[in-house]
Amino acid sequence: MARFFKNRSAAQGRTPGEVVFIGRQKVEQSSIRIIQFNEHMIEEHQVSTLAEAGNLLSNDAVTWVDVTGLHDTELIASAEEVFGLHPLTLEDVVNTGQRPKVEEFDSYISAMVKMMRWETSDHAMHSEQLSLIWGSHYLITFQERPGDVFNPVRERLRNGKGRLRRSGPDYLAYALLDTVVDNYLVLIERLGEQIEAVEPEISEDTSPEILHQINAHRRELHFLRTSIRPAREALRELGRFESDLITQSTFVFLRDLNDLATQAVETMDTYGDMLKDQLESHNAATGNRLNEIMKFLTVFSAIFIPLSLLAGIYGTNFEIIPELHFRFAYPLFWLLLILIALGMIILFKRKKWL
Q: Taking the C-alpha atoms of 142, 101, 59 and 55 in order, what is their torsion angle to the nearest 10 degrees?
């Protein structure tokens, strides 16, 4: 399946708001993990349905419902009844090609971004749909596969350090988004190291392999841009919401998160310009190498033009040519050719054509 666009054939002809999974199934079975906490306690549960998760909701604690696996549309659709989510929100949740965005509803806020990762199997970037939906006392995250970047947040919750345990679901949502954006910067840095490593080789190596590396880096950087740029726009919009579901103290952190996303975009632009310069430098080096080859061939041809002229004259079929019957004509002919060739080489060197 293409990385840049998801096949939407499954959604053709469906009514708006219908929960139809678009993408590739990445887990055999969906799972639901719950972390419930406040300043004084933390509990973790594993449930099989969202109805069970809904029964655990409490006004005295924040409930983080982490759903892994988006292919189970019945499970996802049950969130409409359990948490009062709008059908269009759930439609976006199961659409893994959904562009990053944020939306505000009466009782909740939804944010959809891409989690990025580097796959060593094909040496390429891959994205995963991540949806965060939070209300007054809960946060729901929908992921495509296990193995996310949220383990540091989970450990902070378990250790009870920092403001996570003392804050609401809005700050937890910020913390998760912050890890996603931090991971953007880590991947950009990794790709940037590869881009910079090619720089010294361009002027010395004009082989197709270098061009292949440059184009591969351009392709991966473009893939990052398709996810990170709209994520920056979504985070900027989130920071402008006037909602009771986001406290004033969390707004400060959201603005800082927007600055971090802006840094990621600007760094990508810098590496994009660097790749453009590398491509131009490679083309210039290839052109210079071709010019040197053509210069050598031109000088080589110029030396042999008068020699070919003499050989053509004395290679004619006329019977009366004075020099033909001269005893030393053949060695003198060779001497003349050698002198002409040497004379032209000396002339070209003095003019710095060689």
A: -30
Angle separating helix axes 329-350 and 248-314, nearest 10 degrees: 150
Global confidence as pTM: 0.81
Q: Is the pLDDT of residue 9 over 60?
A: no
| Closest CA relative to residue 25, chosen from 144, 147, 112 | 144
- Domains in the chain and their CATH numbers? 9-285 (3.30.460.20), 297-350 (1.20.58)
For residue 324, the tally of other CB atoms under 10 A from its CB is 11
Q: Under a CB-based contact definition with an 8 Å cutoff, are residues 184 and 261 in contact?
A: yes
Q: What is the pLDDT of residues 49-64, one digit of tens each?
A: 999 999 999 999 999 9
State how far the Cα of 153 lies from the Cα of 138, in Å rounded to an integer.
16
| Residue 212: burial class (beta carbons within 10 Å; 0-12, 13-18, 19+) | exposed
Q: Which residue has the tokens 């549309």?
A: 73
